Amino acid sequence: MELGRARSLAVTLLEGAGIESADLEADLLLVWATGFQRGYIHAHPEKILSEEQLKTFFEATERRCGREPLQHITKEAGFFGLSLLIEPGALVPRPETEIAVEAALESFRGGLFVDWGTGSGCIAAAILENAPRSFCVAVERSPSAIRVAWRNFKKLGQISRVLLWHGSDPWQVPLKAHSASLLVSNPPYIPDPVIPLLMPEVRIHDPLSALSGGSDGLDAYRILLPWAWHVLETGGTLVLETGGKEQCERVKALGAFGFRCEKTLCDFSGIARVLVLKKE
Fold it and tell me: Tell me, which fold does domain 76-279 have in CATH?
């Protein structure tokens, strides 16, 4: 079968399964299955694919039609210019989380920082890559996720600059008071009643521990904020991803004693997504 024909069939299947960016995802699956670049795919629709290439491509397309995340199929995700390993058990990195990285890097030039709930390690890896004189304590409670993070730090040559700490109680993390200048976190913040309404890619395939923020979505912030105040130096920066304007306001209220809100950043859809707080 010709490359162009295979692509057209895949686009039709993906559209029928409700995949919004069917054209793009068909291209990305073809790149992964064949090793061809996207430019080659569009320039050479007459190229005959081997039986192995077709089998790999259409098996992957079938999995995507079943709403398995593209990143689980290809086992990789792009994030802040990095190529990261992704496996089930770790949250798939989201484009909006790059806003938290940008906010963190605005005032951070080096030294010790903390990534609480590191997941795949995407936030910590991006900061380490862009702040060469930095060191990170990356905290994660999921054994599956921490294995993914370790492999990403090793792949990127960052493992000697990271302490990976497995645990759910921040007060057990071996850090002295006022020892970090930055703490960044994308905690689980989705209210439990909302989780059944999420897209299948998220609801079924992302780990529940990375999504569930309790009945009101604020459980993780209640745990994190007192410890963040303890571990950050005076004037230190706390960068938090959140789930929208109302949640931003409630998180600011939780941190009202000890933190000053410097700014709120919106994502590409205009949703208040990232809080930047300063320790007073």
Answer: Rossmann fold (3.40.50)
